[in-house]
Amino acid sequence: MNILLLKVTLMPSVIALVTLAIRKWGNKVGGLIGSMPWVAGPILLFFILEQGTAFGIHSIQGSMTGILALISFCLSYATFSRKLSWLPTILLSYGLYTATAVFFNYLQLNLLLSYAIVITTVLLALYFFPKPTGHLISTRRLPFDIPIRMIIATLFVLAITGLARMLGPDWSGILTPFPIMTTVLAIFSHTLQGSNATIATLRGLVMGLLGFTTFLFLQAFLLSQFSIALSFGIAFIVNVLINLVASRVW
Fold first, then answer.
1. What count of other Cβ atoms lies within 10 Å of the Cβ of residue 61?
2. 119: nearest Cα among 238, 211, 35, 239
3. C-alpha of 142 from chain center
4. Between 40-51 and 145-162, two packed helices, what is the crossing angle to 10 degrees?
5. Do residues 220 and 236 touch, judged by C-beta distance below 8 A?
6. Is the pLDDT of residue 158 over 60?
7. Which of 70, 72, 27, 30 lies closest to 195 in space, CA to CA?
8. What is the predicted pLDDT for the residue at 41?
9. What is the signed CA dihedral for 22, 27, 33, 37, rounded to 10 degrees?
10. Cα–Cα distance between 36 and 146 in angstroms, integer?
11. Residue 222 Cα distances to 27, 58, 102, 233, angstroms
12. What is the C-alpha separation between 250 and 240, in angstroms, rounded?
């Protein structure tokens, strides 16, 4: 299998499909779809193919820390986007993302406790998440915006997986849920549709973290017992079911 070819074809396809989903079904549904493990799943797969199954399983603990940092990113970007343009908003959000990741990595919590904290944090974030005010601005589109999104996301994935051996499983895991797709969706929705669209998209993403977190959590147990395809397939179905329930509740 040519792993590099997989990296440069899979990620652009995912970004394009999620962008089209947002255009068809709206920001909230698009955010929920975007929260699925389209990025983290392939990154975990690349870790396993390049570094081994043990490395991939070990990285999942770090992924829980990364998800907490991702929640911090989404909440801060949604909040700051009301008053600031995309550049200061993204810089502040990345700053809070990094601080959250460093803090929880320092605590070195076990997997079960980390999972419980992430689920609780998602529920709290949904409760306190900013609400859109007024109407969404009609969608504007930049020329060739989908190819631009595809290139940015692919470069992120190549960088993270390329640094995996140097970073080790802990920080590789933390970077697995790095807001690659989230950054692309947030900046483009903020720039083209305004803060309300960004808030709706990011709230959908946070809602989807209930299933996304469970997907990664299950890999810590499934990968040691089953093949990669079966492990991912079982967890993906669970992820979809949780997202369906979450979309009904919130």
1. 23
2. 211
3. 24
4. 40
5. no
6. yes
7. 27
8. 80
9. 110
10. 19
11. 33, 13, 28, 10
12. 15
The residue type at 15: I
Query: Where along the chain do its domains lie?
Result: 3-249
pTM over 0.70: yes
Q: pLDDT digit string (tens) for 86-113?
A: 999 999 999 999 999 999 999 988 999 9
